[in-house]
Input
Amino acid sequence: MIASLLPILILLPLLGFVVNGTIALTRRGVGDDAPTTARHPLVTLVGPGVILAAFAVAAALFMRVRVGLPAPSVVSLGQWMPTGNLVVDWSFQLDQLSMLMVLVITGVGSLIHLFSIGYMRDDAGYARYFAYLNLFVAFMLVLVLGGSYPVMFVGWEGVGLASYLLIGFWFTEKANADAGKKAFVVNRVGDFGFLVAMFLIWTTTQKLDFVGAHAVLATMPGTPVVLAIALFLFVGCAGKSAQLPLYIWLPDAMAGPTPVSALIHAATMVTAGVYLVARAAPVFAGAPEASLVVTAIGAITALFAATIAVRQWDIKKVLAYSTVSQLGYMFIGVGAGAYTAGVFHLVTHAFFKALLFLGAGSVIHAMHHAYHHTHRHDDPQDLRNMGGLAKFMPATAIAMTLATLAIAGIPPLAGFFSKDEILSSVFSRAHGSPLASASLLGIPGSTVLYAVYGIGIVTALLTAIYMTRMLLLAFYGENRTGENERAALHEAPTIMTAPVLVLALLTIAGGWLNLPTLIPIGPTGLLEHWLAPVTGASAKMLAGTGHLDHATETVLVAVATGVAVLGMVIAFVLFRKPMADKAHSAEDTSLLARAYGVDALVDALVVRPVQALASVVLDRGVEQGVDRGFSVGGSLLTRTAAFMGTRLQDGDVGKYAWLLAAGALAVIAAITLS
Output
């Protein structure tokens, strides 16, 4: 059953990409220059349909895995790279961890695809949008199902390509195109670390599949090579999951359509780094120093991004920096060896952050419609132009309020359980564990972990403040949209509201996936038992003898809950009063609003020097020197080669992606059906 369904799971979104991509390329009626009324109904059917079908296949696989899967199920479609001793198969691995990720990707992805029908219905690039979205899901499934590091890397790079296409979807505006390029380039820095880690794994173990390589590396704990592999893997994770200092691409990625942010920056791609640490748990468990680095970087990132979010006015930028901060929490969990806690927060975050992004999309949709109705040009994403939207969008307001309570850590919502488990796990490992016995830059591991716990508490306070601030400014108080615009404000269409409400239900019930024994209101530790065959042994290695008694655990829960409530009270006191002026014409130049000026610093220290060097070396040195050195015949040869190159490679990345996916679809189909 597994061998037959796994390829189908990936073929479905690939098929959707090929169909929608063909329509986008061949029908002017759905092209970017065509009238929006000419949308092809097949796009609406195929785009979300293939993802819903993939979710159905995932559900069938889950029922099979739920019966019992004592060992990972590896399905090989044939050899890929047989070169000497290096033989890499096109293999997919299904186990409890990858099964969980597949359910999140296809489940939340289906809701986002349905939401997109309403959100993108008037966009001229409707077919192209769904083609890219389907392609992204296909590569994300390859990433989490890959049975070896090279196959996983194909998905890793594939989601990078698809995110570039989606972030820069409205590429006719330079800022949007630049945002896509920035995401693509910054992620290449992290990918370098991933590649180095793969080279080290191969030279050390002569294997690249997860089962074989991890079996060898598990016998080498504490060795320098395992430490190096773990650190280089984390460089890749930091790029994909936007950790310091490689976080700078994610806030700009809000340039893409809002459902893209919900899919990429809440539920899937940005959590790939967290997934990789959990997948490589035997490696990180054998290198406590590297795990300390992961935990410390996660904590610093969480606090850093939370301070910036406090002063953002763009509703999507608030959620972007919130995502960076919550990813930091996930790395605190997996870095401390609490792999279940980190993955648990990954899942609950997928629920409430996708809800927040889609809710923000409904707000932007309503605001844009209102301003378009009166021909005003104010920013529909600026919180200073909102207020009182609960009167016009009650369902969205209720859902966003639930999501805000969840991310703040208010019980009994999903975010409370996962965030509390991370903080409690860090506190328990601060004594009697290999992490506590290790050191980071000469600082004892126990000190690092206690500091991380303290940072986590402060970040929780800031999270409650900035999220409550966003909620109050957008939905409550006096409306600042404009007197003429209020008549055009309304709830989003049902096709958009329904997915939001489903995510609201998941936000309420998501905590039941892994209830702690401290709160026995239902089955406890479900997710922990589910993931035990994959991460259980590694988690025990890093946990050591550290254990919390019920009294200490109760105090920690009370502290975390009290901090969340305090943050919401502070925000209510500071922002409940009506704003004196919309101030939409004044730019906020404060340090936090400018995100500490990091982008300007990177531009001054990296971008401009590289551009200057390229101008001197390439433009003046190479190109002009080559042109002067060529004879007339050489110039003719150059012009001929340039002519052929422009015809073969015209720079249309969408066309390249379409041809690549069509070829991959044909190869996989041929192997599967043979």
